[in-house]
Design goal:
The chain contains 9 helices and 4 strands. It starts with a helix and ends with a helix. One of its GO terms (cellular component) is membrane.
Length: 270
Amino acid sequence: MANNKMKERIQCVSFAFLYILPLLLSIIILVAAVWLSNSCVSFGIARGLVACGIAMLILGLLGCVAMSVRRAVGVESHLMNLLSAFYFLFTAIFSIVILGYVIYAFSVTGYSGSPDSVPDRAYVEYRLDHFSHALRRQVSGNWRWDPIISCLTPSIACAQLDNAYSSAQQLFAAHLNPLQSGCCMPSAECEYTFVSSTNWTPNNQTGGDCANWSIDQRQLCYSCDSCKTGFLANMTKRIRKASLIILIPTLVSIFVLVGNFIDFCNHNRD
């Protein structure tokens, strides 16, 4: 008798967790989506996560209402079993869709190889062709890149580098983020002469990004491929962090869903 009561309590807690879990998962997804949407561009991932988060939120609320009704009525019925079956189905569908979004995010934000170390410099440089084609397409063409850089310019704060580093040795020893090293100064391959962090004396080098460098503080290296790679490097890290935050509760949700579904089938078979 005591064992049966304990089993019923465990089952009750398990089902309650199952109904509440989509609600908690939806909150995590929406928070991650808002965090991504605060970036200059999220490559459409934030919009998809918002849609999934709202769907999971509605599903979680309906699940909580159904659980409350079931406890208030206190009886088993074919209708309640049918509603529970539909709840299992839709929770599984949305969990798989969210898992698909996470897998997609990880797949497109991969970087083939390692960043290039720069001799005598503490920071590294990225190459545009090492990012996925899907990401490179997002920064190709002025009509795509110009709005992004207009949004990014205040946050890069290139002018602060002039105040922070008064010599080339100090600058080269600094661990600059990819946007600072890619957008605020010419590429190391140009071998320009240091005047200040955002002011360099050009030489005869015109290959690659060297021709795109400008001492105009409104331009600097904003049109360089190195600036695009810096942006992509920052965004991929941001997307992967958000995806990892979503992945863990999604896997927990799927694990709990499978366990409760097996228990639900065994309970109805009995």
